[in-house]
Amino acid sequence: MPSFVGVTKCPVGVAHTYMAAEKLQKVGQSLGYTVKIETQGASGVEDHLTPDDVKNADFVIIAADVEIDGMDRFTDKKVLFSTTAAAIKDSAALIDKAKKADIYGGKEDAADEKVEGDAHEQSPLIKQLMNGVSHMIPFVVVGGLFIALSITLGGHATKAGMVVAPHTIWATMNQVGTLGFTLMIPILAGYIATAIAGRAALAPAMLSAMVANSPDILGTKAGTGFIGAIIVGFAAGYLVKWFNSWPVPKSLRAIMPIFVIPLLGTAIISGAFVFFLGGPISWLMTALTNMLNVLSKNPQTSIILGLLLGAMVSIDMGGPINKVAFLFGVASITAGNPEIMGAVACAIAVPPLSAGIATLIRSDLNSSEETAAGVPAILMGLIGITEGAIPLATANPKHVFPGIITGSAVAAAIGMFFKITDAVPHGGPIVGVLGATNNLLLFFLAIIIGVAVSAAIIVTLKIRAAAREEAHAQA
Amino acid sequence: MKTLVTTNIYTDVTAPTDKNGALGVMAGLLAKDHHLNEKNLLAGFEQREAESSTGFGNGVAIPHAKIDGLTDPFVGVVTFTQPVTWQSLDAAPVTIAIALVMPADDPDQLHLKVLSKLARKLMDDDFIAALHKNQHDAQALADVLNEVL
């Protein structure tokens, strides 16, 4: 159903504000739109437009005779500026014009805008992060479920990992799913950046996120994963926001967002990753591998090794640290001692399974993102796709990370303790079901305990935070 | 029924057919009822009209004013025997004027809520038709308005 939102405001704030709102509402509804109009009148703001209202609207109509409050909410939306009189006289014409209205690019100097002191409003950083997460979730869901389904139905456990037979429908499905996972990185970065600085930030953020996730460009063994994407998103967003504050001659203004800013932004952010971060990432990966080597030499530290491997798997879920742990496990298969892969395989399933299960407990505390990503995360967890937890961890890092890191560490340590082996470089319950582990029951036990620990921590933290918020609201 | 906002209704008033003249007559009638300074009230109306015309079409206008020191807001309805030129949105002359008079600094949000409800109602074609139908009958007009106020 098409929809639009609007704001009305007149000088006295008693009559025209409401007449214009009513007219837009009536005419809009008769034309088949879902309509919500915020009135900024003498008695204050009524029918306050929430971020969701604005997000879901196809366009925005400002019918005001004086400047309205909170214009920044409509950055990057189609916005038609008009008067209360025009709305009262002919709302149908306004709606028609608004469909083709220009995109509102924000104020010249957004820093000058007053920040509303509403305690319930999220901080801008969280809002920007969530803009990225909400755009990313569909990619994770499609990518993860396609990969999971193709592995379940068409995969074979081999020494090279879970291999889907080529030239089958499952192989195609797997490739499509992989594209979804590839795209989620630039989408996350791009939409964090646009939430900060508008459209001009999209290209630098998306391109740089791809650079940060391309090991061959970075000169490392692994890309920086979703954490790199978040860093790129914020860096590109605030860099472009700063560009936007430059005093630019009028003749150049039109080409700034389509030419100058994307070029400069991409060059600076991508360059910084390649020249300044490629080296440290490689160094970090080597250092971690050396540390694991030392620990694995001594059987007395095997539990510590397990804890460490588990924590590494979940700390960046597909990033360089996860990669080190995973490759270390794979190396143990080649060396004929697949106990380390066994421990890693226990940990791999814990983040998506536990974060997903946590959304089903006290689901009244969920955000819409958590509800959307919860069940897909559980399905991905069963197939050993750690990335399924990324949307949940990004949406709620303060509660999810302590849980999944602890839970994964516990699961891997138990795996080490029971000397569970896994001959396939893949993780999660599926490798057990396919017979790649030496003891299915103990393998499952390790996963279940890890998941229980993680989910308990996540839910406890979430409930405590909700209780604190409530106490705060009542005070 | 006790209403939140008092209503004074004058039907079939003979007034000049220009907006300022008509506003002057309205200010005179309403100021007397509420012991207000007629000149202040007229100045309030004129100030608002200078920003933009309150004639929103369909032969109805809603002049309004904020008055310093007023304690209770009120609604005054005047219907004219001769249509008044009001520079309305649809250019049609006005036969019904609904005046909204409010304190300059009203601590009571309830009044504003009531007035905003009335303003929304003015966008309802049936409501406007009811006003026109009863524009010679003060009691009937009061009933129509009191349903809202």
TrEMBL record, chain B:
Alphabetized InterPro entries for the sequence: PTrfase/Anion_transptr, PTS_EIIA_type-2_dom, PTS_SugarTrans_NitroReg
Ranges where the PTS EIIA type-2 domain occurs: 2-148
One Pfam family linked to the record: PTS_EIIA_2
Superkingdom, taxonomy of origin: Bacteria
Organism of this sequence: Schleiferilactobacillus shenzhenensis LY-73
Protein name: PTS system, nitrogen regulatory IIA component
Listed PROSITE patterns: PTS_EIIA_TYPE_2, PTS_EIIA_TYPE_2_HIS
